Amino acid sequence: MLDGPTVAAALSACGVTHIVWIPDSETGMWEQSFCADRKMNLIRVCREGEAIAVAAGLMLGGQKPVVIIQCTGLFDAGDALRNVVHDLKLPLFLIVGLRSYSAFQKKATHDTCPIFTEPILNAWQVPYVLLDDKSTRADLQTALSESLAKRRAGVALVAE
Fold it and tell me: Looking at the 3D structure of the chain, how many domains does it have?
């Protein structure tokens, strides 16, 4: 299960220097763990496009940021993501909360976020992994490590 201590430990082990985020109902519970890790800086932003731009600036300055947002914010930040990943060719890694995924799998919601998130990432040609309630620190760490090693963008979709 991916909780705050698990995610913070995985990010820290991969050498992440900054977490640029807009907390949602799920990832907001991770804040205490992020603040407790003195090796990483937590940067709160107002908009998802801003998160991507701030992370890009940090990368250009030699840092290793990760962006944490929800899928609806990913939709909104598409142009910023496209520019950073495809035009600037920065290997940005994002953790994206996939809202209502678990309920959608049980046909218990009409939320369309689970319908559109993966096709949008495919259209933007951004590799991703889907992490669910059975996923572990190692799963997240592997996804991030592979992205860093290959110097390519990546997304860890966290099923909510």
Answer: 1
